[in-house]
């Protein structure tokens, strides 16, 4: 059983990732969820995960973290995720609040006691601040498995992917820290994209599948408007990697983060190196990857 903390900015695909993890309770123990400004403001993304927990009837402690990147202003993405950060499903407000403890204090408390894997599905502000503030706790971070970066062209500027671009200074701290980082860039996510025809097979009939289908109702608009037949479910990739690493091709090396340039800020430059502490996921087996995701929805609904 692996203990994990999920750092996220829900976010449609963040929720899909958490659902995938929840279906594997024997393998992944989510001991806490931390939130950070990214897809939407900190308040909105924190509220989104609380609403989803309430809807699913679960109670994983939620700790909110930083409401803006280390240097840049926050830049929410309503085109991808809507004004709420999770447009689509209409969920009741949760009566449960986030913990009064800041995410940074939560990480400190856990890492002083034990080794942990961190799954990062959002800009890296919380983790950059953690490493900068408590460098002595680094040894207890087993690994950081993150969705972020791009090898051949970005989704937010010519070269950069959103999570890294939103807080490049934090990303640099993380990648320069000597901690083992597994990076799932845009390309591996694209190789595992879900077909819109597969989305249409998800029914509205059961609790979890209804939530996922309603998330897709908004999330797929981007692909539909561009006449694409599929959409990447980015944040699901790190979770499936933890569950089934054999589904992925990868390379070892080092990733450098570009800090400046309108077209290049947040670019991830990868160099192969057998002794590097970064693992870059390159490609997945699409059908088996999607099966893990769809099976997770069904497992939760059938329990
Ligand atoms: C990443 O940015 C967000 O829009 C998604 O939730 C994902 O984490 C993809 O670039
Ligand atoms: Ca995300």
Assign the CATH topology. Inosine-uridine Nucleoside N-ribohydrolase, Chain A
Low-confidence stretches: none
What gyration radius follows from the Cα positions, in whole Å?
18 Å
Classified by CATH, the class is Alpha Beta
SSE order: EHEHEHHEHEHHEHEHHHEHEEEH
Q: Identify every distinct bound molecule in the structure, by name, code or SMILES.
A: beta-D-ribofuranose, calcium ion
- pLDDT averaged over residues: 97
CATH architecture: Alpha-Beta Complex
Share in β-strands: 15-25%
- Major β-sheet annotation: 9 strands, mixed
Number of domains: 1
Question: CATH homologous superfamily?
Answer: Ribonucleoside hydrolase-like
Please give a structural write-up.
By secondary structure, the protein is of the alpha/beta class. The chain has a single domain (2-302), classed as Inosine-uridine Nucleoside N-ribohydrolase, Chain A (Alpha-Beta Complex), CATH 3.90.245.10. Helix content is 38%, strand content 20%. The chain contains 13 helices and 11 strands. The chain has helices at residues 12-22, 42-56, 78-81, 103-111, 125-133, 162-166, 168-175, 186-191, 196-200, 207-219, 221-225, 236-243, 286-302, and strands at residues 2-8, 28-35, 62-64, 116-120, 141-147, 181-184, 194-195, 230-231, 248-257, 268-272, 278-284. It has a 9-stranded mixed β-sheet with strand order 3-2-1-4-5-6-11-9-10, with helices on both faces. A two-stranded antiparallel ribbon has the order 7-8. Strand 2 (28-35), helix 2 and strand 3 (62-64) form a beta-alpha-beta unit. Helix 1 runs antiparallel to helix 10 (207-219), helix 1 (12-22) runs parallel beside helix 12 (236-243) and helix 4 crosses helix 5 (125-133). It starts with a strand and ends with a helix. 49% of the residues are buried. The mean pLDDT is 97. The structure holds beta-D-ribofuranose (BDR) and calcium ion. Residues 8-9, 11, 13-14, 39, 121-122, 235 line the site of calcium ion.
């Amino acid at each position: 059983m692996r203990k994990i903390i999920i750092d996220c900015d829900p976010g449609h695909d963040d929720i899909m990732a958490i659902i995938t993890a929840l279906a594997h309770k024997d393998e992944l123990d989510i001991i806490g969820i931390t939130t950070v400004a990214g897809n939407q403001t900190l308040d909105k993304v924190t509220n989104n995960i609380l609403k989803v927990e309430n809807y699913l009837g679960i109670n994983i402690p939620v700790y909110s973290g930083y409401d803006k990147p280390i240097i840049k202003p926050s830049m929410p993405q309503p085109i991808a995720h809507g004004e709420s950060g999770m447009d689509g499903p209409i969920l009741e407000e949760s009566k449960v609040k986030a913990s009064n403890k800041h995410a940074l204090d939560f990480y400190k408390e856990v890492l002083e006691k034990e080794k942990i894997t961190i799954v990062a599905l959002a800009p890296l502000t919380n983790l950059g601040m953690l490493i900068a503030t408590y460098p002595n706790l680094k040894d207890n971070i087993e690994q950081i498995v993150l969705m972020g970066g791009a090898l051949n062209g970005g989704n937010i500027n010519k070269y950069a992917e959103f999570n890294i671009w939103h807080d490049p200074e934090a990303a640099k701290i993380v990648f320069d820290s000597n901690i083992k980082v597994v990076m799932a860039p845009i390309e591996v996510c694209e190789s595992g994209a879900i077909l819109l025809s597969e989305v249409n097979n998800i029914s509205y009939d059961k609790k979890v599948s209804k939530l996922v289908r309603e998330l897709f109702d908004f999330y797929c608009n981007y692909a539909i408007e561009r006449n694409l037949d599929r959409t990447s479910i980015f944040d699901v990739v790190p979770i499936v990697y933890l569950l089934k690493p054999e589904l992925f091709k990868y390379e070892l090396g080092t990733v450098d983060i570009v800090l400046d340039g309108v077209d290049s800020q947040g670019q991830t430059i990868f160099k192969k190196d057998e002794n590097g502490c970064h693992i870059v996921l390159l490609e997945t087996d699409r059908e088996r990857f999607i099966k893990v995701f769809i099976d997770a929805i069904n497992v939760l609904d059938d329990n």
